[in-house]
Amino acid sequence: MAKKLLILAIVLTIVIGTGFPIMRSWAEADESVYIIPVSGEITPAMATFFKNSIKDAESINADAILIEISTLGGRVDSALEMKQAIEQSTIPIIVYISDRALSAGALISITAPRIIMAPGSHVGSAEPIPYSIKAVAAIRGEFEASAERNGRDKTIAAAMVDKEVDIPGLSPAGSLLDITAGTAKEYGYAEEVLEGRQNVLDYLGFKDAAIIENQPDPLIKLAQFLTMSNIAPLLLTIGIIAIIIEIFTQGFGIAGIVGIGSLALYFGANFIAGYSQWWPVVLFVIGIVLLIVEVFVPGFGLPGISGIIAMLTGIIFAAPDPT
Q1: What is the pLDDT of residues 128-187, one digit of tens each?
Q2: Fewer beta carbons within 10 angstroms: which end of the chain, N or C?
Q3: Please, what is the Cα angle at 281 between 276 and 283, to 5 degrees?
Q4: Are 165 and 147 a contacting pair, CB within 8 Å?
Q5: What is the C-alpha separation between 212 and 194, in angstroms, rounded?
Q6: How far is residue 271's CA from residue 217's CA, in Å, rounded to a whole number?
Q7: Residues 51-86: pLDDT tens digits?
Q8: Phi/psi-derived region of residue 144, left when phi > 0, alpha when psi is between -120 and 50, beta in every other case
Q9: Is the pLDDT of residue 24 over 50?
Q10: Residue 110 predicted with pLDDT over 80
Q11: E-strand stretches of 82-226
Q12: How far, in Å, CA of 57 to CA of 116, rounded?
C-alpha cells in the first residue's frame, strides 16, 4: 500500500510540476494572441490550414491573430481564399512580414488592417503568371480593393501588379513595385518596422498575453508539398502515363505500382487540402476499369469513351480549379 501511495505521489508531482506552469500562464494572462505562420508557397493545403486556423482562433475567443509571413507567392485562387478569410474574421488581424511577402503573399498582407515589417523585409512584385491583360486587371482590382478597404493608397497597390502604373519618385512605368520596410512605412503600408515577434507583441500591447501558435501537422505539410504548382501536375502526368503503360502490358508490374502511387498522392493531397471529395476518386477508378474492359473488347467503343470521360471528370473535380 505504501509503495502504491509513493508511486501515486511521484506521478502527481510530475504532472503538477509540468502542467501547472502552463495552466498558470493561461490563468494569469488576461489576453491571448493566436499565431498563424504563412511560410513557403501559397498552395491549396496552405489555404485550408489558414482558414481552419482562423476558425480555431475564433472558437477560443483570441484577442488578436498575428500572421507571420515569409513567402515568394503561389496560387492566386488560394490567396483569394485566404484574403476572404481575413476579411470575414471577427478577430483583429495583424500581419508581420519577417523577410518577404511577394506576389500572392503581398495580397494577403495588404488585406490585413495592420502590417508590421521586419528590417530588411520587402513586399510587392505581384504580376500574375501566366501574364495576360485580363489577369492583370482582375488581380489589380483585388489589390486596389484591399488597399482602399484599409485606407491605403490604392495606386501603390496597383503598381505592385501592373507595371504600366507610373508613380513618380517611387515606381516608374515599366517596372513592378516592390517596396522595402522603410518605404512601406513612409507611404503608410507598414505601421512600424520591428525586429522579431516579441518586439511586435510588445508594440501591439500583448507583452504578457498567452501565445497560441498553430503549426501545420505532418499531413498538412505533405499535402502542401504535393499541391505545389510544379508537383501536382507532375504526379498527375506520371500517374496517367504509368496506368496507360500498365493497361497495355501483360501482368501487373512496376508501371502499375508507380501509376497507382502517383494518382493516390495526387488525389489524396487535394482531398486533405479540402479541394476534393471521395466521388471524383471513385469516378476516376471507374474510368480506369472501363479502359481495362476496352482493352479486351475489339475496336474502340462505349467502354473506352466512357472511361476517358470518367477519368477526365474525376481529375477536373479533384483539382482546385479546372486549369
Answers
A1: 887 888 999 999 999 999 999 999 999 999 999 999 999 998 999 889 999 999 999 999
A2: N
A3: 120
A4: no
A5: 21
A6: 15
A7: 999 999 999 999 999 999 999 998 888 899 999 999
A8: alpha
A9: no
A10: yes
A11: 93-102, 114-117, 122-124, 178-180, 192-193, 210-213
A12: 20
Q: Measured between alpha carbons, how far is residue 139 from residues 22, 47, 74, 118, 320 in Å? A: 44, 18, 13, 26, 18
Distance of alpha carbon 105 from alpha carbon 79, whole angstroms: 7
C-alpha gyration radius of the chain: 25
Hey, what amino acid is at 142?
E
∠ CA 148-85-214, rounded to 5° = 125
Distance spanning both ends of the chain, measured CA to CA: 70
According to DSSP, residue 262 is labeled H
The span from the CA of 260 to the CA of 288, in Å, is: 11
How far apart, in whole angstroms, are the C-alpha atoms of residue 193 and residue 191?
Answer: 7
Beta strands in the chain (DSSP E): 32-39, 64-71, 93-102, 114-117, 122-124, 178-180, 192-193, 210-213
The DSSP call for residue 171 is B
Collapsed DSSP state (helix, strand, coil) of residue 167 = strand
Residue 205 in grid coordinates: 500591447
Instruction: Give the residue carrying C-alpha cell 480593393.
Output: 145
Which three three-digit cell numbers place residue 295?
Answer: 482493352
Contact residues for 134 (Cβ-Cβ < 8 A; gap 6+)? none
Distance from C-alpha of 275 to C-alpha of 266, rounded to nearest angstrom: 11
Count other Cβ atoms within 10 Å, centred on residue 6: 10
Using one digit for the tens of pLDDT, what is the confidence trace for 270-308? Answer: 766 666 667 777 777 787 777 777 767 665 577 777 877
Q: Is 323 helix (H, G, I), strand (E, B) or coil?
A: coil
Mean pLDDT, residues 95-121 taken together: 96
Q: Is residue 127 helix, strand or coil? A: coil
Sign, CA torsion 60/64/69/75: positive
